[in-house]
Design a protein that fits this description.
This protein is mainly β and 120 residues long. The chain has no helices and 11 strands. Helices cover 0% and strands 51% of the residues. Strands 2, 4, 5, 6, 9, 10 and 11 form a 7-stranded mixed β-sheet that branches. A 4-stranded antiparallel β-sheet has the order 1-3-8-7, with no helix packed on it.
Amino acid sequence: QVQLVESGGGLVQAGDSLTLSCAASGRTFSSYVMGWFRQAPGKEREFLASISTSTGATNYADSVKGRVTVSRDNAKNTVYLQMNSLKPEDTAVYYCAKFRSFYSREADYWGQGTQVTVSS
């Protein structure tokens, strides 16, 4: 069982930057492919980014590529999502996830989500 707890969400203004954190349980965090999704009101959950285990290779959705950076600190069992140049359309609940593999966008564990609201 893997537990994921997100933090760092909140209300920001358009153009601001924000970094989300996700703390994971488990003694084998370094072997987990981790990443982020988001879900805006009335929309389906959207893949944003993932990061591999040992190599740190990353994968991004085209919709956010260039504005977000996913990173991890295996010593702290934590994965991060740095978001820049935020727009009102980035308003959503952001979810941390453990992926089945780096080549899959299917997650097998989810956090509870953290709300990000971007005002214009």
